[in-house]
Amino acid sequence: MRGLQVMAGFTLYPDRALIEITGKIFNGNATPRHFLWWANPAVKGGDAHQSVFPPDVTAVFDHGKRDVSAFPIATGTYYKVDYSAGVDISRYKNVPVPTSYMAEKSDYDFVGAYHHDERGGLLHVADHHVSPGKKQWSWGYGDFGQAWDRNLTDENGPYIELMTGVFTDNQPDFTWLAPYEEKVFVQNFLPYSELGMVQNANTQLALKLVRESGQLLLGVYAIAPLNHIVVEVSADHQPLYETQLTLKPGESWQQTLPENGVGRLTLKVKTAENQPLLDYQEHITQQTPLPEPAIAPALPEAIHNGDELYFIGQHLEQYNHASRYAGDYYRRAVELDPQDYRNNVALGTLAFNSADWALAEQCARAALQRAHRLNKNPRDGEASMLLASVLERMGDDAGAWDHYYKASWSGNCRDAAWWSLARQAMKRGDVADALEKVNTSLRFNASNPLAMGLKALALANSGQKKAALEFIFASLEQYPLSYPLHCARWMIERSDDARETLLRITGRRGVNASLLAGWLLSIGQTSAVKEVLAVLDSQEALPMLWRASLSDDANERQQFIAAAEHCHAHNVRFPNSLDEVQMLQSLGDSAFARYLLGCFWYSKRRYDEAVSCWRETLEKSPDYAPAHRLLGVYSWNKQQDATQALAYLQRAVALEPDNARFLFELDFLQKLLARPVHERLTTLVERKAVVLKRDDLTAELLSLWNASGHYADAAAILDTRVFHPWEGGEGKITGQYLLNQLHRALQFIERGAFKQATDCLKAALRYPDNLGGGATAWANG
């Protein structure tokens, strides 16, 4: 997901009661990226809440499609809860534990939620071909859920997340973006009232048609003005009822008819001119088997098919899988067939994204050996595009130029290839050629803001300043948040308004400063990079290091490096772009830059390079605690060297004694090493003020006190401290509270103080609010 530029535009209409959200997601990288988009409005929960899923939703999935349930009436076990009696899980009051469910599929364009007591709700409307994601998340009505509700709301109690996915139907269900591709979509959120459960909706109206107690309940809710609309009801295509209505936005109409055993019903709403507005044909539920939950893919060594290995690797990469690595599958495929085109491109792309130029080049050339064996004009240009990108990063612009041209022959790479050629022409100083090539690229892909910015600068540099500004302002109509366009405007105009607008749009954020620095360098505007970074003056580490890398003054360079380290302590962001990596590589004399570079290598599984950088950091700055800490993490996680890991982490804590994170990791390692309780306890008690900065570390102190008989010390913290829950830490604080009450009760029993023992046991039946947690139905059996 790194390197994506995201815009969301919110539109209100004077004649429609809805909010329209237009999303634009752009991949400004030379390689594919993936993204996940879920919009999560919160709606009021409680006993009267009900999820409004389309009538054709008969099955729902858990995250990752690991589990499945019938819907709305669950009949099996879901989230470890027994619903075998048949339970309506669309109702909040029937879901006792934290629960997600996502519609397996639906042919309808809406999803929503309704509160029956307040007679109002919320609907989401979007084309289901683009926005298939329909989800509800609830913390559950139990003690545990109520504790989370208290922590996450001010005063209005339980809530539900009505979640709507675009280009996704599950979490995590990511979608690919090709290099320089933009995806655009529209979502609509709207309130509605009175109708309760609705059966269809669009951006003009919502419809209700249900059978209940021998009657037909009809309803129309107006989102837009509905003037002289015709409402028709038929049964098996035979007319049953018709009326004409006029409704203002926010108004509703309802009608009750006798059922009289009619056949399948259809409700249609049309204009007075007989143009259809919306209809609903009564959904007939059929007995269909539940879909199968997802299963884990086989390990790479058990697979002997390159095609299967490729698609498993793509899945793992796309889903950011936590325990499987896509590269293992691509490598296995290349072992089976060293010139496998797709797997070499996939492995080379992973290597490229990890700044491993040698492996990326090797894979790209191996792929081209297969693609070019019979002729050199393959339909797919990805390998040529990859090789060109690698060569450019390695400084071989001439070689890159040739392969970008070759990639431009293939339809799936032509816009990216022509954009890359335009960049290189601009770097060469051939503005006319750059302008010609960027126009070609924009003809194939008019939504690339990087190319738009280059075109504006090329126009200005060729003496067409007026045309450049006209192009910028016309483009900003469609892309008002485009950093390259605003940057180009300032570079051309040099006006106060252009400067202030650039500062406002970028927010002077470090990530935006880095993006502009990398973009300008890629088109040969080195002097402009210095000026733009100075104008933005982002008080973050990486922009400061950019300025250091571009400075010719040794003193100024050191000042920027010192400022970067100071900024990093207050605003942490690690490098994650290839431009930032190459910038850091140019600062080989900086201990801090080597530290950050090592963090990038570690995140990309390049452990030897990471360790080398951190050791260089300590050679230049022996007391730099973060490097000691990370070498400790590496020593344990990757080498299982307990002695070395302990030494590094102890040194990190000694250098930064007030750093609670370092202390937590040191104690965690001691716990893994089964160090005596009294030893760990001594360490934490001596640093109690630091321990109390973190709830997770405080939980460890409580466990040690409870394990060693210091029950009063633990009780003092449990009675007074306000804890904040964290995902993954569920039960850690409440568990220590329960243990503490039980141990104290046993102490009182030994003393014959049965009244006090009873009080402790009664207290253990309910968790106080200050603990930030509650019992789950699972814990209750």
Automatic annotation (TrEMBL):
Gene3D superfamilies linked to this entry: Tetratricopeptide repeat domain
SMART domains membership: TPR
The DUF5107 domain, residue ranges: 10-175
Keyword terms, alphabetized: Repeat, TPR repeat, Transferase
GO MF: transferase activity
Renumbered ranges of TPR repeats: 591-624
InterPro entries: DUF5107, TPR-like_helical_dom_sf, TPR_rpt, Ycf3/AcsC/BcsC/TPR_MFPF
Alphabetical list of SUPFAM superfamilies matching this protein: TPR-like (SSF48452)
Pfam families: DUF5107 (PF17128), TPR_16 (PF13432)
Taxonomy, superkingdom: Bacteria
Identification of the protein by name: Putative transferase
Species of origin: Klebsiella pneumoniae subsp. ozaenae
Gene assigned in the entry: yphG_2
